[in-house]
Amino acid sequence: MILNCVETTKRVVAFTFDDGPDVNYTPQILDLFREIGGKATFFMIGNQVKANPELARRALAEGHEIGNHTNTHPNLTDLSPDEVIRELSIAAQNIKEVTGIEVRTFRPPYFGYNETVHSIVTDKFGYPAIGAMNMNATDWSNPGVEHIVEHSVDHLSAGSILIFHDGWGDRSQTVEAVRQLIHMAADRGYQMVTVSELLQLAACEV
């Protein structure tokens, strides 16, 4: 039910970031991708978009994708169906009001996902639920730059989706790890694309 990668022969990889936009760390991540020439997907929290609208607009203006990460970051499996709908709807509304776009992708907070949530996400909103290959990197827990890199670098492979966090706490380790990883990806000939671009490339090869 959750997509961690796609099958493709193209040397493309999708870096993704959760829990922003954050005034301290999102700009640093955006600067890194501007320097390397890649794109990423930012799964943004609706109320954070409302609090930092200029960062959401900057991400979009620089070619990145914004995905839905709910409005307040609850575990959706703890909510009623109506509450799940409300979380997703308000987040989408806040993002649209700030950026003018309709979001097309979704990542569940805490990866809290079940059949009920899946039905709402796919049937009502039409979102693919996006996971990641490098779950053991656990950058959210600040395990050290070396740990984040070590548990991500093996997943720099065609069609992989990688998860990091640009909000909710000190993300300086993430910034440095991502700096190293995107240079490794570029040196290996990988293009960094958004999740939607990755899905479109895969669809073209079916």
From TrEMBL:
SUPFAM superfamilies: Glycoside hydrolase/deacetylase (SSF88713). Coiled coil: none annotated. PROSITE patterns: NODB. Residues 11-193 form the NodB homology domain. Pfam families: Polysacc_deac_1 (PF01522). It comes from the Bacteria. InterPro entries: Glyco_hydro/deAcase_b/a-brl, NODB_dom, Polysacc_deacetylase_ArnD. This is Polysaccharide deacetylase family protein. It comes from Paenibacillus terricola. The lineage of its organism: Bacteria, Bacillati, Bacillota, Bacilli, Bacillales.
